Amino acid sequence: MPKQVVIIYGPPGAGKGTQAELLARRFGFVHFDTGRFLEMLVHAPGVQKDPILRRERKNFDTGKLITPAWVLKMVKEEVKKIGAAGYSVVFSASPRTLYEAFGEGKEKGLLATLVKFYGKTNIHPVWLTIRPATTLKRNSARKICSVCGLPKLANARISRCPFCEGPLRTRTLDKPSVIRERLKEYAGRTYPMFREFRRRGFRVIKVNGEPAPYMVFQNVTKVLGLSSSRSGK
């Protein structure tokens, strides 16, 4: 199977990270979790000493998009390493803006880097759709491990991570007020990207994200033609 890029989009709670992780585990993709990557950067020790990181941490923790130019720089550096190593890659919600994806003026976006390493026909944007009410329900109940980042199983009555026994926490991003802000950001900045992808000749694959994750995964792998494949490298 040729190296591939899958870019999973959708509102908060659509299951972007879950589907990306399933692709990574089942087919050997590298899961580039942009949200976790950026959270790690802006919450790293000593962040208060760096004015840029301090600014981006404030944006991140209030639900606003981090400065696109800074995100693009950080993500492109990591993507070049993955592409050069010869791995397929799946993104969860990145690139998130027209600028990050396609650039502006002389500044090239992430898609230019991806096309260079993978070829245009091997890049697949996937759009998971869910209702706003589903976003609020899923995210308001979500907790993650403060040590390894593993999410709590749905409806599980536990206070410790089932993997490493680390304490669970609610992300700043998952507070109802922040979720509503994230939905506004998604509608205003990310949604227009689907039109631009189509205008530039990419096929946007639309998948219903409301069913159980395994059912969504079956549909995703079917439309990507991965059902009989094993490896993403």
From TrEMBL:
Instruction: Report the catalytic activity.
Output: AMP + ATP = 2 ADP
Q: Where in the cell is it found?
A: Cytoplasm
SUPFAM superfamilies reported for this sequence: P-loop containing nucleoside triphosphate hydrolases
Q: Which family does it belong to?
A: Belongs to the adenylate kinase family.
Q: Where is the signal peptide?
A: none
Q: Which GO terms describe its molecular function?
A: AMP kinase activity; ATP binding
Name-wise, this protein is Adenylate kinase
Pfam families documented for this protein: ADK
Annotated EC: 2.7.4.3
Q: Does the keyword Cytoplasm apply?
A: no
Location (main, coarse): cytoplasm
Q: Which UniProt keywords apply?
A: ATP-binding, Kinase, Nucleotide biosynthesis, Nucleotide-binding, Transferase
Q: Quaternary state and partners of this protein?
A: Monomer.
Q: Which organism is it from?
A: Candidatus Jorgensenbacteria bacterium CG23_combo_of_CG06-09_8_20_14_all_54_14
Looking at the UniProt record for this protein, which Gene Ontology cellular component terms does it annotate, in alphabetical order?
cytoplasm
